[in-house]
Amino acid sequence: MSRSCLVVGGNRGIGLAVARTLRSAGERVTVTHRGGVPPEGLAGVLCDVTDPEAVDRAFHRVEEEQGPVEVLVVNAGIVRDQLMARMPEEAFTSVLDTNLTGAYRVVKRATRGMLRMRRGRIVLIGSVVGLSGAAGQANYAASKAGLIGFGRSLARELGPRGITVNVVAPGFIETDMTASLPAGLRQKYIKQIPLGRSAEAQEVAHVVSFLTSPEAGYVTGAVVPVDGGSSMGL
């Protein structure tokens, strides 16, 4: 039977690829978006993860239309890159509030139903930057590294109830965000990747799809890099 799935931040990039992959597998999928209209062929609900009331409203609507969330993928995130010496405090706290505290808000809300059902799949979309760090991204790296400790703690808490929690850490992925990088900087990043290329969002989606599947029922607390080998040894 198909499951009720929610992809937070699923209107573009990796989140959209994940949502479409789950939908093509026959799941009931809703994506959250902060404005505009949902992607074609997918149900959408407005949600700002920095607003607890908006998160609650989004879950109420999903629960009414497709049932309690059984699969949660948390992909919402922002960047506010700046060297630490010049980074205003708001740039640090806003990234943490969206990328890390936002994950706390949606996961806490999702676990209400999962705990009652005694089953569930939670996948947090981190980043290789959370493992390696990056100059000018102290705020972003801190938020993504925090997801690892958050996810692994949840894996211990929720495992006895049949709920798995895993983190996927993408590397250099072809998205709207990376497409805007200067050509020289893109080449610099790609030279550091053993496979010698960037990845498509769909390649991340396949890993997420596996982690939400019955075949991954004994996988929890894992951090899975999808980075072409760039974080080996970290």
Overall description:
The chain is globular and about 50 Å long. The mean pLDDT is 95. The chain has helices at 13-24, 52-66, 89-117, 129-132, 138-158, 176-179, 183-191, 201-211, and strands at residues 4-8, 28-33, 43-46, 71-74, 120-125, 163-170, 173-174, 199-200, 223-226. By secondary structure, it is an alpha/beta fold. 41% of the residues are buried.
What is the secondary structure topology, with strand pairs?
Layout: E1 4-8, H1 13-24, E2 28-33, E3 43-46, H2 52-66, E4 71-74, H3 89-117, E5 120-125, H4 129-132, H5 138-158, E6 163-170, E7 173-174, H6 176-179, H7 183-191, E8 199-200, H8 201-211, E9 223-226
Could you give a short description of this structure?
By secondary structure, this protein is an alpha/beta fold.
Question: What is the succession of H and E elements?
Answer: EHEEHEHEHHEEHHEHE
The oligomeric state of the chains shown is single chain
Q: Mean pLDDT, nearest integer?
A: 95
Radius of gyration: 17 Å
- Give unreliable regions as ranges: none
Structural class: alpha/beta
Q: Beta-strand level of the residues, as a percent range? A: 15-25%
Number of helices: 8
List keywords for this structure.
234 residues, alpha/beta, seven-stranded parallel sheet, two-stranded parallel sheet, 8 helices, globular
